[in-house]
Amino acid sequence: MISMNWVKDYVDLTGEDLKELAVKVTRGGLNVEDVITHHIDHLVVGEVLTCTPHPDSDHLNVCEVNVGEEILQIVCGASNVREGIKVIVALPGAILPGDFEIKKGRIRGVESNGMICAKFELGLEEKTEETYAAGITELGSDAVIGTDPLLYLGLDDTIYDLDYHKRRNNDVYYHIGFAYEVATVLNKRVTLPDSQYKESDDIKDYFSLSVETEKCPFYMAKMVRDVEIGESPDFIKQRLTSAGMRPINNVVDISNYVMLEYGQPMHFFDYDKLGKQVLVRDALDGESIVTLDGKSRDLTSKDIVITDGEKPVCIAGVMGGENTEVDEHTKTILIEAAIFNPVSIRTTAQRLDLRSEASIRYGKGLNYEYTIEAMNRACHLLEKYANGKVVGNHLLHDKVDKKEKIVDFEAKEINKLLGIVISDDEMKRELERLDFAYTYDAGKFHVTIPNRRLDVDPNIHDIAEEIGRFYGYENLVSTLPRVPIRKGEYAPDVKVRKEISKRLRSLGINECKSYTLTSPEMAETFKYDSMESIVLPNPMSIDKSVIRTSILPSLLNTYEYNKARKVSDICIYEIAKTYHKDYTETQKVAILMKGNYITNSWNQTSVKADFYVLRGIVENVLDYLGFKNRYAFEVDKEIKELHPGVSARILLDRKPIGIIGRIHPSLKKDEIYVCEIAINPLMSPVKPIKYKEASKYPEMIKDVAFVVENEITNAQLLEVIKKSGGRLLSEIEIFDIYRDIEAGKKSMAYKLTFKDDTRTLSDDEVMTVFNKIIEDVTSKMNAKLRG
Amino acid sequence: MEKLAESIMQDLMAELKLVTKTQELVELKAKYIGKSGRVTELTKNMRDLSPEERKSVGQIANKLKTEATDLIEGREKEMNNALLNEKLQNEVIDISLPSTKIPMGSPNILEKVIEEVEELFMSMGYDVVDGPEVEEDHFNFELLNIPKGHAARDAQDTFYIEGEEILLRSQTSPVQARTMLKGEGKVPIRMICPGKTYRRDDDDATHSHQFMQIEGLLVDKDISLCDLKGTFDVLAKKLFGESCKTRFRPSYYQFTEPSVETDISCFVCQGKGCSLCKNTGWITISGAGMVHPNVLRNCGYDPDVWTGFAFGFGAERCAMLKYGVNDLRVFYNTDLREMKNFDRKEGE
User: Fold this and answer.
1) How do the domains of chain B map onto residue ranges?
2) Which residues of chain B neighbour A581 with C-beta distances below 8 Å?
3) Do B252 and A419 touch (CB under 8 A)?
4) A461 and B293 in contact by Cβ < 8 A?
5) For domain A43-153, is the CATH number 2.40.50.140?
6) B109-342 in CATH: which number?
7) Where in chain A is the domain with CATH 3.30.930.10?
8) Residues of chain A with CATH 3.30.56.10
């Protein structure tokens, strides 16, 4: 929150429309999210001329109020209303916070033409029991009747609510920093506030400082005596309130005021409680301190503490200790203005869950110049508003690297990066506007970046950003990079994934996306390749604590989600990366099918998803990828999530690449078929496509049926038939299976196609091969020819 | 003779009228124009006639044969047509019965958006690259100008796996770093890298611990912020239509300098102000900027020679805007009832 009344101290805003200015500032890259004004129309200073009890009430009063142009009758319920006081009057038409419009009306039968207000009713104070009991706000006798009471109260402020940019450094979120931003926008200059004060004596006679940690590059201490604790002057209270801080007393308020002014957090110790020295060091493991909020905090060696030489008196940058707190009896103050290691402060604040205005600022890094300025300013204000006597000299530990940030460049380099054209003269004006010191010599700029700009590094890109954001990105002209024409490609691992994905979609399978992180229970299923999962050491919740090794548990979840929504035919797939304990990555595709694959609701031609449909889809994809004749399915009864009689390993070039089968009925009762295949093996090279002419010679077809034992598989029979059929046997197609034709036996009927691409086959030679097949099958497979 | 021919014709016509079955017609055909049919009979004794008579009889017989054949074949055609018509009549189906449902295969909505973006950028010469989701801190942060302890790390609340070294990537930018390292500072780069990313966010309508980022990178010589603007214009028009306007605003990211936030004109109100754009007329889509010299240097590219731009945006946000989805979880639940609409080409 930035109070624009405050900013006016440093940069001339006469005649500026603050709403418009907010837009300009936003365009420059600092988001003013909201412009809050306290102004309320139809609010005037009024004087209570008469005050008589309401005839029909024991607490209301009927008042005659002079509001300048007229005298109004207003009914008022506050206990402190009385003749002669000056008050805030909301006239009919005024709209108070909460969209409460004041209207002429009657209260218990008596005419009332407005409302006498308290600050809390105007949104200027919190509504508490205390403020409610205090009644209406009484204005001083010097308030001019008929004028704006908020102006009189100094509450006519305009407040900018800044979008606190996580990524931007701490260089604009204080009033002087913001004033520089505004000055750049308006091309004006910043004047810094008065930091003069008188000194006597020497702090070194009273106090010593030592710093024994590298995490405190800068520590400055000064002493102020004889402070008188009391209320802050109105302007300090009002500005703190505007900036979102609650006024407490003059001394505490001054430390906050200076922080909001220079961005430098301050800490005040009660000198009498502190003792004779300050020692800054790393905290000890097991050490503890009771902080200002009365809570005991356990410290670790990662924290920085301020000690009195022995015990901690403050957690550096995070919160002060109760033992040295400034209270109403405090007489002498020791002021600390320091810079601590930002990472350390952030870590400590996070661990103790003590994020405050101060710790956030320390955590983003500080400019030592302002640390010194802030110290002086605090002394000035304590002298002026708390009657403090500043003790001469200071204690200082200073290990800050003061190397200047210098950039040398030519305007054309900036132009090239931004794609704009600005002349050297314009560049000079831009740098002056930014208040960056520079020298110029024959086209070369030599720029020193001010220390207050912690966010600007000495390189051309950073300068280009500063120039660009005030030049206005809306003035950029769109161009396209002048680069050679080429066609973009999918990287091989992406390409194979896309090919599979598109093929599966065209085969009517729907794509899913689910979460990589799963629950331990889910992660325990489908560990068919017996690999261990990665478990997050610090998960957000237990159901998202393990990195999955298989996609199938998630697909089953998606299945359940749809089943619960009465979707009966579910054909889904997902492609995702899975990880094993040793961080090896496997890209996998998983498919799940349940219900109908092809549906006709009335003529019984639906195709139900079963093992063979799913395998057909897998084969279709593998064939599409060019792997015809290179894959096989091998019975595997060991996959515990799959039906032992309906499950197989999928092999490519004889190596397992996945599994296929029906979900084990003990896992899911529904008839669900799934498969999961590792994708990377599918990146292996395949033969190019070649045209093959269809045979010109006739083919001969022979049917044959064998009676074999039930356990004999199609694959076993095929192997024998193929072998004895030799090169003339071009196709084998099973066309009938008849189970239990006799006890323990089944019949399997095949259509055999014989063909030679170079000539017509004779009946005799086909019969010779055909008979050999019958002979081999009957002898080797203990089969009988079916009559 | 002529009389005889005439009477044969009359008999034929009379009999034809009575024919109703194919078989009867076959018989009739034999009876008149078959080998020993009545018409053929006429010419039987031709040999015995004088040449003149032979000629006259021949003419009459031929004429009679042609006429009889035409008549019979005409009738044959008629009957065949009637049969076919009857058959067709019997084969009439109710075309209003429901069709056999050829299965639909919808893309995941996010993938649909990503594929659209990929297609566009590939046409402009960008490769599509992927990288590991379980990533090293070195690639996810350090090479990208976010050293250990940097405040920017707090903003990306990361899932760490092993100490502070191994993590679930919080952005897809490590793929950019890896691509640059592979280029060894020698070759220009044009790439995009859509992929899964992870941050410690509680899942709700607008937050997700897992989300899809689409990042792009171009490294070449003499690349300017205006080139980024032009490229972003092309993207915005592709995703949100030709009338889409774009706007850059200054912003702050660690791996780009200068950095911008990129807005598109609100496609609902055309910039007039509505609830979608919170009355600003603009919708923020992505973050972008010129690649930070430190990042170029860290990844082996000399910033004095090379410049480039990078951009990144969320597939979820795009999909939500483009298709009017108002809950992020839709993308990860896969309600097949909702997916139906997505198995089709994009509208105009």
Assistant:
1) 2-90, 109-342
2) none
3) no
4) yes
5) yes
6) 3.30.930.10
7) 492-683
8) 405-470
Are A547 and B251 in contact (CB < 8 Å)? no
SS3 of residue B27 by DSSP: helix
Cβ contact B258:A418 at 8 Å: yes
Chain A residue nearest residue B248, CA to CA: A473
Nearest to B164 by CA among B190, B188, B146: B146
Task: Work out the average pLDDT over A761-785.
Answer: 92
Tokens of A490: 């999918």
pLDDT, tens digit, 9 for 90 and up, residues A362-379: 988 899 999 999 999 999
Write down the architecture of domain A492-683 according to CATH: 2-Layer Sandwich (3.30)
The shortest C-alpha distance from A166 to chain B (Å) reads 6
Across the interface, whether the CB atoms of B132 and A577 are under 8 A apart is answered yes
Pairwise CA distance, residues A185 & A433, whole Å: 8
Contact yes or no for B249 and A27 at CB 8 A: yes
| Range in A262-276, A673-687, B261-275 with the lowest mean pLDDT | B261-275
pLDDT at residue A166, rounded to an integer? 55
Packing angle of the helix pair B225-240, B315-323 (nearest 10 deg): 40
Q: What is the Cα–Cα distance from B61 to B1, expressed in whole angstroms?
A: 9
User: Using the beta-carbon criterion (under 8 Å), do A468 and B258 form an inter-chain contact?
Assistant: yes
The complex scores an ipTM of 0.88
Domain at A199-398, CATH class: alpha beta
Task: Give the pLDDT mean for B320-336.
Answer: 92
Q: B293 and chain A: CB distance < 8 Å anywhere?
A: yes
User: By C-alpha distance, which of A349, A402, A346 is closest to A371?
Assistant: A402
For residue A109, the model assigns a pLDDT of 87
Name the average pLDDT for chain A: 92
- Write the CATH number of the domain with boundaries A700-785: 3.30.70.380
B105 to chain A: which residues are within 8 Å by CB?
504-511, 571
Q: What is the pTM of this model?
A: 0.84
Tokens read off for A598: 């092809």
Q: What integer pLDDT is reported at residue B156 of this predicted model?
A: 67
